[in-house]
Specification:
This protein is an alpha+beta fold. 51% of the residues lie in helices and 12% in strands. The protein has one domain: Orthogonal Bundle (Cytochrome Bc1 Complex, Chain D, domain 2).
Length: 112
């Protein structure tokens, strides 16, 4: 079951290939778009997926399986994060999303 208001499990239509992360070259890698993920997914689903993505795939979660297929069958690793770690990570992603949105808003206002 898809969270309410979510037409697709993906923000963009295709994953973005990347060639560089933190100064080192990475061939044929794909990074999911996490910008505003908190607005596109229910918090409980996100928390569980970050905590135990392997179990969600094994349990047949529809969105987890769609993401797995969309991102070239690359599994998100289970990092063994605690509940507090998951909450801190999601709070960080939310804060960064707000910061990006604010910078974009200021940039648009400056360009006028």
């Amino acid at each position: 079951m898809r969270p309410s208001g979510s037409a697709s499990p993906f923000h963009g239509s295709e994953p973005e290939p990347i060639t560089q992360i933190t100064g080192r070259r990475v061939e044929n890698e794909v990074i999911p778009d996490l910008l505003d993920i908190g607005a596109r997914r229910e918090r409980a689903w996100l928390s569980r997926y970050v905590a135990e993505p392997d179990r969600m795939l094994a349990d047949g979660d529809a969105i987890a399986n769609e993401l797995f297929a969309h991102y070239r069958n690359v599994r998100m690793p289970n990092l063994g994060l605690s509940g507090d770690d998951v909450a801190a990570l999601l709070a960080h992603i939310d804060a960064e999303s707000r910061a990006v949105s604010e910078r974009a808003r200021k940039s648009r206002a400056f360009a006028r």
